[in-house]
């Protein structure tokens, strides 16, 4: 199996301006590679990176800007009306691409970022505001808005990011960007570069208090010019100490949202979540799950957009009451130590198994956005085993043997 030939361009004066003038193609951070035309390879040095199986040239050109633009979309993304003949082509069995979905998804995730950050600031109570870094990938590549609240009263580190990116990539990269079931049916020629569009919101919230759980959510939309599209996402909880009433509340909110759209969604996506967040080398899940789905395009995009919007809209309801209930609970040094050990598991999953993280790291995405998910602190101890019957053992048992909460 041949390793990836990965060419990284060194920093050059006015390099990003040169890229813009020459029309280099870009993709994103958390979603995809920074993919550029092969003629730029002569500026780089070749490095062998194992794991991915295609050749690409990668030049990181993320630029911070003082203020986020009103929209990260291109002119053509904002236009409504009937689809062109080119865009009407679609895969058999997949509903056509919706003409306004790109704009609708951007509006949804940016509004959600604002409301969720405000809710978290209020819960934190420190008076701190989220630091905002807006960044772009030049005229053709899109950009994103990263927001992080660090060293608050309640939250050690909380991040809520949005990204809207586009470019071209090899078909093999398209397959790696999804679970594979959809991408393999795209119908592209072996050497044909695939135009794509990707938009999403992603968040991880790490509290100080070990009795307050970590929470993660991510919702995304992906599209290509040949009519292939899908949505993915999920919301999940990672406690250090297991409180049944918290698990029931969290899963109960998620189930209520799922049931409004399809009575089969909750059980289907709960199992998917339990399977996805398995740390295989440990034989345990990252946490107590939630819901997770990917490659979803088995019904009209408008229906799945409403479902994704509803899920994002209930993140605060699912999580904040738990934070309020636990944030003032006293804790010991031993309990904090256990939290740090569980944080170590979180790091292991994200860096070894999480598809978005691994793909971004291997393909030169914006590093601060990719690693926003990691906690400030974590811990590893040799062969640590909690005693049976302890609260720590109970949490570990729930991670090893997923339970039904509602």
Automatic annotation (TrEMBL):
Domain of life per record: Eukaryota
The keyword Zinc-finger is assigned to this record: no
Entry keywords, A to Z: Oxidoreductase, Porphyrin biosynthesis
Listed SUPFAM superfamilies: Coproporphyrinogen III oxidase
EC number: 1.3.3.3
Protein name, UniProt field: coproporphyrinogen oxidase
Pathway the protein takes part in: Porphyrin-containing compound metabolism; protoporphyrin-IX biosynthesis; protoporphyrinogen-IX from coproporphyrinogen-III (O2 route): step 1/1
Lineage of producing organism: Eukaryota, Rhodophyta, Bangiophyceae, Cyanidiales, Cyanidiaceae
Source species: Cyanidioschyzon merolae (strain NIES-3377 / 10D) (Unicellular red alga)
Cellular component terms per the entry's GO annotation: chloroplast stroma
């Amino acid at each position: 199996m041949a390793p990836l030939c990965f060419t990284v361009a060194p920093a050059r004066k006015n390099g990003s301006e040169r890229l813009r003038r020459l029309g280099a193609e870009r993709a994103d951070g958390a979603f995809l590679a920074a993919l550029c035309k092969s003629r730029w390879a002569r500026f780089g040095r070749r490095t062998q990176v194992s794991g991915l199986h295609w050749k690409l040239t990668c030049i990181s050109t993320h630029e911070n800007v003082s203020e986020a633009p009103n929209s990260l979309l291109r002119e053509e993304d904002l236009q409504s009306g009937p689809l062109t003949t080119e865009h009407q082509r679609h895969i058999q069995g997949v509903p056509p691409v919706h003409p306004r979905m790109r704009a609708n998804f951007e509006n949804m995730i940016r509004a959600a970022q604002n409301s969720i950050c405000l809710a978290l600031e209020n819960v934190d109570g420190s008076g701190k505001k989220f630091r905002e870094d807006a960044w772009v990938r030049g005229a053709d590549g899109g950009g994103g808005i990263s927001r992080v609240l660090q060293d608050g009263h309640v939250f050690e580190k909380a991040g809520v990011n949005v990204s809207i990116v586009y470019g071209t990539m090899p078909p093999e990269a398209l397959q790696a960007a999804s679970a594979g079931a959809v991408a393999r049916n795209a119908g592209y020629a072996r050497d044909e570069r695939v135009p794509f569009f990707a938009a999403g919101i992603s968040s991880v919230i790490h509290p100080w208090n070990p009795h307050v759980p970590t929470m993660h959510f991510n919702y995304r939309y992906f599209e290509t010019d040949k009519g292939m599209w899908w949505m993915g996402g999920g919301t999940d909880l990672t406690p250090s100490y297991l409180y049944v009433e918290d698990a029931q509340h969290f899963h109960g909110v998620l189930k209520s949202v799922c049931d409004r759209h399809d009575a089969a969604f909750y059980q289907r996506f709960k199992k998917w979540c339990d399977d996805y967040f398995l740390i295989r080398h440990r034989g345990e899940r990252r946490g107590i799950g939630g819901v997770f789905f990917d490659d979803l395009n088995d019904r009209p995009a408008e229906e799945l957009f409403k479902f994704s919007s509803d899920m994002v809209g209930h993140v605060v309801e699912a999580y904040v009451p738990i934070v309020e209930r636990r944030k003032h609970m006293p804790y010991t040094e031993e309990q904090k130590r256990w939290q740090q050990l569980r944080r170590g598991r979180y790091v292991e999953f994200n860096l070894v198994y999480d598809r978005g993280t691994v793909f971004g790291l291997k393909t030169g995405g914006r590093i601060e956005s990719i690693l926003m998910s990691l906690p400030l602190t974590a811990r590893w101890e040799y062969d640590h085993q909690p005693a049976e019957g302890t609260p720590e053992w109970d949490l570990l048992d729930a991670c090893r043997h997923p339970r039904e909460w509602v």
